[in-house]
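User: Predict the complex.
Assistant: Input components as received:
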Amino acid sequence: MSGIDVIGLTAERAMGMLRAGECTSEELTQAYLDRIAAVDGDVHAYLHVDAERSLAAARAQDAVAGDALSGVPIAYKDLLSTKDVPTTAGSRILEGFVPIDDADVVARGNEAGLVSLGKTNLDEFAMGSSTEHSAYGPTRNPWDLTRVPGGSSGGSAAVVAAGCAPWSLGTDTGGSIRQPAAFCGLVGLMPTYGTVSRFGVIAFASSLEQVGPMALTVRDAALLHQVIARDTDRDATCTGPREPIVVPDAGRLDGITFGVPRAELEEGVEPGIRARFDESLAIATALGATIVDVELPYSRHGLAAYYVIAPAEASANLSRFDGVRYGLRVDAPDVRSMYEATRDAGFGPEVKRRIMIGTYALSAGYHDAYYVQAQRVRTLIRQDFDTAFQGVDAILLPTAPTTAFPIGARLDDPLAMYANDIFTLPVNLAGIPALSLPNGLSDGLPSSLQIIGPAHSENLLLRLGAAFEAEHAFDVVPPSMRSGA
Amino acid sequence: MSGVELTADEVRHVAALARLGLDDAEVERLGRELTSILAHVNTIAALPIADVPPTKHSRDSADSLRPDVARPGLPREDALRNAPDPSADGFRVPPIGA
Amino acid sequence: MSAPWQRDGYEAVIGLEIHVQLNTASKMFCSCPNNFGDEPNTNVCMVCLAHPGALPVANAEAVRQSVRVGLALGCQIPDVSEFSRKQYFYPDSPKAYQISQYDQPLCGEGIFRVPGADGFTVRLTRAHLEEDAAKMIHAGGEGGRISGSAGSVVDFNRVGTPLLEIVTEPDIRSPEDARRFLTLLRATVIAIGASECDMEKGSLRADANVSIRPIGSTEYGTKTELKNMNSFRFLERGVEAELERQLGLVQAGERIDQETLHFDPTTGTLSSLRSKEQAHDYRYFPEPDLLPVTQDQESLAALAGHLPELPVARFDRLSEAGLVEATALVLATDTGLAAYLDDLALRTGDLKIAANWVMGELQAHLNADALSAVQSPVTPERLAALIALVVDGTINQTAAKEVFAALVADPAATAAGVVQDRNLAQVGGDDALGEIIDAVLAAHPDEVEAFRGGREQVIGFLVGQCMKQSGGRADAKALQGLLRARLSS
Ligand SMILES: [Mg+2]
Ligand SMILES: [Zn+2]
């Protein structure tokens, strides 16, 4: 066992230790591997850990005169392709699949000298809000092992909360970074659409999703976002950030105007979540910010629009899993029955549900009523945000209306599961950025504040987040995960 | 809220389009679940927004075209590495069938 | 319009869908080489194989060439166009959707004119850019066909080849016109350099939508689709066969089914193909991985301004210069030959004489030696020198042919040199010809008698004899004159 206490260790601090020569990347990596060995049996956040590979990567970083982040460990959501390392998207249909190249974001991580600790669990193909829809079993919330960590990037959240990685990458299609960050007491950033490459990210809903950082602090999130937010020639929709990402310091909020869509808070928000949210409004005011009401009248239709658009895109994106070129194949006497048997055996119930909705919504006779209508609602949701941002700098909402719910509680009610994303998915439909950060506890479980900004306002969101973070003074380490606990 | 009830035949038709081989129990379950999800989705069906242009792309047009420069493809071993049923030089599939 | 296909009160209604593989260096949505005939599965990548997470990025040159084709065909070019996903499951489609275009193609409506005395116009519906499918090698089935196959092996080299699909309105009225239209369209695409349009290699593929209707009717009958006819002759024959089949059905009181047919050129028969997606529910929607492609008027004008002379315009020019239609058409549709002609005409100053040489001796030699015009050892410069010797009377036509053959055989030879070495200059002067005439008349007293008795045609025989005497070098025109003068004196 190494002597490094990785519980609650920020990436920034880890970087400082490495640069100061207080430890090597190999020692640090070993400390995380030890931690994983100790607690991941309970949390089940990793799908793939290759200790030898990680240690070799760490030694490689130790061997060169590293700078900045080199040698800092990281965990990647198993939706991100990793060259020569199995990548499953949490699905049986990709069991044994080994990508021939890294996702762009992983390549950027490698270039920065980050050391991969492994691949994290997720809802199958990122379809879910609890990580219960993984073909490889659910991940448990480090704050309460009987509860879900959120999803779909539940593994990426749980590894950080449990001290099994200093930070991680997740993907967000309707809240899949922010909601698990909220449930696990972390910072999560959903970037502006088109600022982070999707190449190598196993596609769920192409027009909605981005990769983003999950971290213990706002500064860590900014540091990791600096690494991944880059232009690429492998994703036609990505042009990188408009300005360099800045690592923020805490400060006051004088001159900032926040909008609060109060009408959206009327229903379905747990009292504890609401109370923490109201406290944050008071903090904002105390820091010099102005709070005004805004209206987002079409946001309430976001859920319906999302559950047409995302499954429609998913139904096409998942058609490539046909047993011909990679992945699972169930043998059958002809091609068609091979397709049907393979896809029946390879996909889990939630994935089938969404493929069915999407196929139905695009099929002859329904296309206009469902798909086109949903895209009209999307236009209106965008316009709502555009209008709101003419009067305010950013919008505040809880990230999720509830704290982490018990494992199994919503599995039989897809609509109730989907409803957990009502505050996050309008952001994806609008293609704008949002930052989720811890906002105190509600009944011992993390509550969370979401700051939504106009396109390309990441630096503003990070700066605002740093200001709240300093006031909240949230202890990111779950009680049961504390050293000696 | 308009009531759409998916019949078993409709479920089977959609499953056939999506090449999902479903057993009867799955057809029954999905029929039920899709009906309730579509009932919610239908809350937007009646919105009087026919004149609103649909969002067809996630972002505005950017200079997103690629210069026409060829680079060698993968070594064939790599191309075939993940194939469930590779031949010496390709991907085997069962007969197209009747 | 050439004779429309009309039988027993019915007329033909034909539209074409033409797929043209663009000859870019790389594929449509990835940088794999766009090469025909390489070892299977060697020009493939994550995008070609639809690996999870692979994304398409559109080839700027394919877009540019498509727009050039559209401009050359007289299509409107919209400001914005977008890609869409066309979904169907088949092993040749790795994503199970083809990236194609739906309601916003790169090239919109156009009108294409087939010129000539019996010319006609065909309205173009659109031309859209898409990606080609993979190739399946069917094992075990007879002749590589699907039926009875023991399975297939998929080769993804061809997948992602840029493919421009050109769709016409059903404005064509006979199988022959279908061939004429396609010939000219192909020549146009070749002329601008967007594709080789080699039907044998599949870089040009044509499907025909065929129906019949009572003459004078403005409604359309049920159409069938003839797939992938891989030569002009098969296109013409296949459409003819299908028209006859439909007429037979209608006359027998039977229904025509909307179906896809395959024409077997060896037996001349049509067979029904199984459709890829029985229900044909392609579930199109805008491709979220690609952004719309925009065109600005300035760049469009620049592209249009830099198109080469197109076959239709060339036909008009050559016809107006006095070439007969058949000649003008051949030259209009063969860019290489036309360039040779223009060069030659510039050097000789006479398009018609140049055209005669190009269509005659030159073409015969190119065909015999399987050369293109630009490859011929007889350059326009060398041929022009030969023509000059004919025009100034140094040699006659017979000798000119011999000189041409010598120029083919020896790339270093010059026309003047050959004439000198082989003593091919015309025997012209009155004295020299007079001697020959004297000898011939003396040798054929009966024929002389017959001519004088009124059998004028005998003169031909006598001219021939004189020519023979001269070793083929006599100036035929001068010879006739002198001979007539002598006989009538
Ligand atoms: Mg097509
Ligand atoms: Zn490729």
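Chain B touches chain A through 54 residues (CB under 8 Å).
Let me know if you want any component modeled separately.
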